[in-house]
Amino acid sequence: MVDSDAVARAVRELLVAIGENPNREGLEGTPRRIAEMYREVFCGMDQNPMDVLSVGFEEGHEEMVVVRDIPFFSMCEHHLLPFHGIAHVGYIPKGRVVGISKLARAVELFARRPQVQERLTSQIADAIMGVVRPHGVGVVMEAEHLCMTMRGVKKPGSKVVTSANRGIFRTKADTRAEFMAIVTGTKG
Among 35, 45, 81, 111, which lies 20 to 30 A Cα-Cα from 119? Predict the structure, then answer.
């Protein structure tokens, strides 16, 4: 759980450390606003994504299910700057399907923590494999990282793409290719 009072105190100290006056009119409420923002941005720290993935239905379905273009926002744990983009999640159930909104919710809960994109991608795939127990899972994430676009190398528009494949998405090239064709909107 985010300690809002501690965050506000730390932001106040940070403002002083960069040479600002935290008492000036434009900055007076900044420590409180940032504490509120951090409570929202890091809400995934207080919730278990595995819990949302446990909501499913026995349907006898064993064909690919893909949710494309799931928007997400996260915070780079190295610079505490945002990265944001879209996630594509696919799986092949073993008869039992998970509520599709639960896939998007799991993406959000893992993203709402200090993260690196590589780990985020793997966490989503591993959680689906562990809770839903499908034949396989594929996750592709595309994101722009402000730590790379507004500072450092300063390359706005650059995208980082990561993928994680589990089960038959890893072992069967045709399954992986079908998933990628659906994600990219190309014909196989």
Answer: 35
- How many domains are there within the chain? 2
- Catalytic status, residue 117: yes
- Residue 86 sits in the same domain as residue 158: yes
Q: Do 156 and 130 have their domain in common? A: yes
Q: The whole model's pTM is what?
A: 0.94
Check if 76 is active-site: yes
Q: Does some domain include residue 46?
A: no
Q: Which one of 20, 43, 61, 79 is the catalytic residue?
A: 79
Q: Is 43 noted as a catalytic residue in this protein?
A: no
What is the arrangement of strands in the sheet containing 160-167, beginning at the earlier edge strand?
Answer: 114-115, 65-76, 82-92, 136-145, 160-167
Full residue range of the structural domain in which residue 20 is found: 4-41
How do residues 147-185 score in pLDDT, each as one tens digit?
999 988 999 999 999 999 999 999 999 999 999 999 999
Known active-site residue 88: no
Collapsed DSSP state (helix, strand, coil) of residue 160: strand
